[in-house]
């Protein structure tokens, strides 16, 4: 089984998945509406489905929402990246290009570095880089 984010866009899925490939690595796989016959009201070059599998093992999927279908907005979902790998800092820096940073990436009271942003495509991200453990309270 796999659980992964599937990101919806109006007309920016191709640009967005290319951006995420530049952030995380990997090669996007893109299928258009036109590749599957009559696209109806959709742009034949619009992204019906895009997938990105990264060297770190992440999977992102994306699509353009065709005319007549509702594009969800104001969603209560945020993509979260966490771990102790310093590569997370690089991901943060790349995601922050053109983004609105809502919480700067900095050390928090729990000892980790944490930040939040909304990228240039309107997708919310959280990044948590585990601390060294030096600031953790002693255990008994």
From TrEMBL:
Gene source species: Knoellia aerolata DSM 18566
Protein name, UniProt field: PhnB protein
Top-level taxonomic group: Bacteria
Entry-linked Pfam families: 3-dmu-9_3-mt
InterPro entries for the chain: Glyas_Bleomycin-R_OHBP_Dase (IPR029068), PhnB-like (IPR028973)
Lineage: Bacteria, Bacillati, Actinomycetota, Actinomycetes, Micrococcales
Domain PhnB-like: 4-127
CDD domains found in the cross-reference section: PhnB_like (cd06588)
């Amino acid at each position: 089984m796999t659980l992964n984010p599937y990101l919806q866009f109006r007309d920016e899925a191709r640009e967005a998945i290319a951006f995420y490939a530049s952030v995380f690595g990997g090669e996007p796989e893109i299928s258009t509406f036109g590749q599957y016959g009559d696209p109806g009201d959709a742009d034949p070059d619009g992204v019906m489905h895009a997938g990105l599998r990264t060297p770190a093992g992440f999977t992102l999927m994306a699509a353009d929402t065709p005319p007549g279908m509702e594009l969800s907005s104001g969603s209560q979902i945020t993509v979260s990246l966490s771990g102790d790998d310093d590569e997370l800092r690089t991901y943060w820096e790349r995601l922050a290009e053109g983004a609105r940073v809502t919480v700067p990436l900095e050390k928090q009271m729990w000892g980790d570095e944490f930040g939040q942003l909304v990228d240039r495509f309107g997708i919310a991200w959280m990044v948590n880089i585990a601390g060294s453990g030096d600031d953790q309270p002693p255990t008994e």
